[in-house]
Amino acid sequence: MAGFFSEELLNEIISATDIVDIVSSYVHLKRSGSSFMGCCPFHKEKTPSFHVSADKQLYHCFGCGAGGSAVQFIMNAEGLDFPDAVKFLADKVGIRIPEEGTHQNEERYHKKQQIYEMNRDAARFFRESLLSDAGKEARDYLSKRGLEGQTIAKFGIGYSLSSWDSLLKHLESKGYKRTLMVEAGLCIMNEKGHVYDRFRGRVMFPIINPSGNIIGFGGRILSGDGAKYMNSPESIVYDKGKNLFALNLAKKSERGYFILVEGYMDVISLHQAGITAAVAGCGTALTREQARLISKSPVYLCYDSDEAGIKACERAAEIFKDFGTKLKVISIPSSKDADEFIKNFGKNAFEELIDKAKTVTEHRIDLLLKGANLDDVAQKIEIMEKAAQIFAGISNAVEREVYVNQLSIKSGISVEAINSEIRKVNSKNLRREVRSEIQKTVSIQNTQAPEKKNITKRRAKSEAGLLSMMAESQKVFQSFKEHYKEESFSYDIHKKIYSLICEFYENNAGGKCSDYLSGNMQGEEKELSAVLMSVQNVDNPVLAAKDFMNVLDDEIFNEKLTKAQNEGNIEAISALLKEKKQKGGK
């Protein structure tokens, strides 16, 4: 991946970046010695296992294994590819990246650029088709939905003709190959090798990423058979689970928050009304990757008021909870969705809904009480039990007390009864968490077994620790370099790291050894961070390295002795025992 940029430029950007500043924008970090800890943003956890080292400029999660430099963090956190992540960091630190000559030798990069250009030409063709005589039905549909010409142009809305190959022929006339059209999802190839347009007779909505590139399309059928909505398949430029519709526009909004709605038309109607913070998924249920894109700002959930919308809202709330996002729920009365509401009641009425938006807990309590017969004892008990499950998840005692009092007033259930039920739930949850932690520990022990059966975990840990100390301290390297050779290490990744450490110190490369390793191990960031972050907050690196060396030597001796015993090699056994005795071993 480093081939996208010169080594000098990449090192300059990484050196100028403070990974702690970058990560702390996404994760609440607490200092732990010379490093920082927090809950991993890439998997769900309650006990922090996510570490960030300011000295090494690396992060590593000992729970899920995610790790690397600031570049890899931004790739995962923002859903960006390598070059866009580097550009993101370059913008942060004020380093200009040359526009030309950076990506000349990258085939994948050029293919992505071709698809971006082809998608742009396809969008223009759809736009021209909408304005043509054949597009009258589509124009009538958009007019009926209340969309103005300026809004249609702003979102690049178009129309795919009903013929089987109109887009195909148009793109061929532009010089694009059919294989690229199929790869981008604009066309389909059947079993006989015939290629035809994927979208036919549909209103077309371009999906644009925050960089302004068209990465896919959504198409709404006007008449006839077929799915109501059809979306582009995933490609090298489009991952529907990592993108949000209209995020490119909503990021420019001055409102300081996002409104997450269900459909394209909900988004477009809100933007047309001047509520420019709206975004939506791309034909999938909300994913963690999508939530992460907007999780740093407050988010208003505005899903349809039907049963499916209520479930989607609940699922989204659970996802955003992991990110610590400030979350509220907009409840839409008298209408099924945001599009209908704003058409029926206007912008000011929707602004009032925003002002009256409730916290997730308040929303859940309202749903519990909705339509309930509070004179029915059985229903009261059911409400109390479900509410206790909700309240038990609130760690802040003051916040929990407020909600308990609110429910007590609304339901007539005493505060004492609700709190008693909460204590029961907490007790059950605690037992469940203990069992879960025990199972997780057993699972980790099983899944983190050494990749070579004859290599013990003890040896693997000592190898990683010694390499970590060598990378951190030239004094450690000088003290122990004569004792080991590349073949002394059991894993290929350890051998490579040791070789690069030797290269760094022997060539007087300058800078930090960890930066040198990161620059020379692109694509192996997880493995590197696992090694370099295996030891932290060491007061005496030389002494710590000596401890690891003693363990490693002991393990190497035991392996040699076991092999000699299995082979029945008496001479080898005698020589090993003599050698150990001379070194002062037992």
Give a summary of the structure in a few sentences:
The protein is 53% helix and 10% strand. The protein is of the alpha+beta class. The protein has five domains: 2-93, Zinc finger, CHC2-typedomain (DNA Primase, Chain A, Alpha-Beta Complex), CATH 3.90.580; 107-238, DNA primase DNAg catalytic core, N-terminal domain (Alpha-Beta Complex); 239-356, 3-Layer(aba) Sandwich (Dna Topoisomerase Vi A Subunit, Chain: A, domain 2), CATH 3.40.1360; 373-447, no CATH class; 457-582, DNAb Helicase, Chain A.
Continuous helix count: 26
- Number of domain modules: 5
The pLDDT mean sits at 85
Assign the CATH class of the largest domain.
Alpha Beta
Strand arrangement in the largest pleated sheet: 1-2-3-4-5
Number of strands: 16
Structural class: alpha+beta
Q: Regions with pLDDT < 50 over 5+ consecutive residues?
A: 101-105, 440-453
Radius of gyration: 30 Å
The name of the CATH architecture of the largest domain is Alpha-Beta Complex
Percent of residues in beta strands? Answer: 5-15%
Helix content: 40-55%
Query: CATH homologous superfamily of the largest domain?
Result: DNA primase, catalytic core, N-terminal domain
Major β-sheet profile: 5 strands, antiparallel
The N- and C-terminal alpha carbons lie at a distance of 50 Å
CATH topology of the largest domain: DNA primase DNAg catalytic core, N-terminal domain
Give the overall shape: globular
